[in-house]
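User: quick one, fold this
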Amino acid sequence: MADQIVHRRRRTIKQQTISSPPKQTIRSNSQPVRINFLHLLVILSITFVVYAPALQNDFTNWDDQAYVLHNPMIKQLSWHTVKEIFASHDLHKRYWMGNYHPLTMLSLNLTYQYAHQSDGKPIAYLFILTNILIHLLNTLLVYIFVLKLAKSEKLAFVVALLFGIHTLHVESVAWIAERKDVLYSLFFIWSLIEYINFVDTRKWSHYFWSFVLFTLSLLSKGQAVSLAVTIVLIDIFRQRKWLSFKVLLEKVPYFILSLIFGLIAIEAQKYSMAIVDTGFYPLYKRIGIAGYGLLMYMLKLILPVHLSALYPYPDIIHKTIPAYYYFAAIFDFLTLGLFFIWLKKRQYLAAFGFAFFLVNIFLLLQLIPVGSAIYADRYSYIPSIGWFILIGYYLVKIRSKQLYYLSLAAYSVILGFLTFNRVQIWRNSLSLWQDTVKKSPKAVVAWNNLGSELSNQAAELKSQGKLNESKTLFLASIDKFSHAIQGKPDYANAFYNRAVAEYNLFLITQDSSYIYKALNDINNAIAIKIDFKDAFLQRGLLYDLLGKPENARFDYQRVLELDPKNARAYINLGTYYGQKGDYDKAIQYFKKALKFAPNLYASYSNIGLVYLNKNQLDSALYYFNKAKKLSPDATTYYNLAITYHRLKQLDRAITSIKKAVELSPNDPVILYTLASFLIEKNQVKTACKYFKLSAQKHYPLAQKALKFYCKQ
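Assistant:
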């Protein structure tokens, strides 16, 4: 039954508490529902202001690469792409990142079409802006939902305001990869509004649109399955005979659809390994974990402090949980008693809000373990609506206007301040993971991702020739990966990432001990995860460095067994045969790489090198120019210079090698080659300058040339 939340004389309120309103009053639409547009403007403006700092944020390395930066299904908009998104025969594409959420993928695709630069690089703030705009729409819909449900504009204002600015929603809005959360919620809340319209008017058109919107919500995120139970709550609240055959029959399509998408979600999770074996923790411990998670959701919805991107299990090695987890479960059970007190006192709106929260949070309490966290901020997005109805119910009952406004203003300022600051934690990968390991030091994923970010920064510095700075960051990344491995000794990805950092340290320092450390880590990663194709690829590179080409070839072929379309493996096998002098087979493998990755410049460059070795210079020139279009780096220009030189086109050779020097001014081979070409042009003085620069890098040929040509 809907409580009439208006301030009347005390006697009227007392009578309302004792007796229920007539059923026809609840079922009809006789009470006018008025939208206060000024209130809406205030809510949406405040919400936008607290989220505005997110527009300065960048992509993070937490799924943003998979969903946006390296997602082949969002780069082009075509009927073929749409078909792939909804019903690809490749199950890894259909169940992208372990989810069946084609509408989310299509949404990201549409955003990408206007949010990428000419070089194809996406623009982060436009993806974030889209998330914020959807969140604003959701806030608007929450206002309408509560207004139609409770017939109280005052309550609708409070609930929508809290929903819009609450800090627990930052993860859903500021995290680019979490587009699915705000998108499914858009259709979820809209579907509930249409269902209320159906209950109020009995017009089947509203039922139809409610069901369509429910379907769209499920196509955005599987979490929407809880809507089927939520509409039953609306029936009970509106005093419908929800156990009657007619009313139950209305729910059958919803529950059938929920079951179908629930089964799809379970199947999809197999492609991300996100569902933890149910033996991960025994049932009685999972009940304790669920109880603790539920308590944390309630407490953080009241005061969202000490938030973290990850809330890890307490002891994933020994599978133990603290005793207070069980006390939390007992406390939750006692809290359920409030629900019956609210019913007894006919405070039906409070009971509805609490039930709405429980119904929509229940499947997310890790009774079926999913992922590596006990709870997550993003899971509270829809359930929080019920909690805010509960909070709003008591706020609007405050008799004193001054106390009401003071309480709401103070609470809103606190939430707005916390949200404004929390949004900035998501500025980039470094700020996100540094905050996470500080608050959740047992979060092994955070340590691994922090190490990955440092490793990526080190690789960028390495490409710029800043080797000392690069070395420092690679060493720092190894420390973070070691933290992750210490917390989870079977963490294959952390072993792999540490091996890659060690491999790069060898390239910088030429200290062979890093090769053996890397090989040991890669072997550990493969032992833990026998189908780890990236690890096999990396181990092949290590075997190449150790002078074991046959071992390397075995690993590259193993990669192709696991992934027949892996272009990198084809390139490495082509390199193997090229080094053996089997040029025809090398070209065959390089061209296979082009088939699966037509924009991978290494294939063109390597084919060019094979033709250069075969002295088929025109063909070499063709492929080097193809490589230059894709990646005009120093190596490509160097190869072009050598080819032009062999073609007796010395001026073009010098032009190309000068461009290579410009791009890589510290490479001794490139400097020496430029000097050699200048000698042929009789520009001895200029040549000596480059011989000297090369000799300073301890290049032996340059040192000899310096003595011969320059008398130094």
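User: anything notable?
Assistant: The mean pLDDT is 88.
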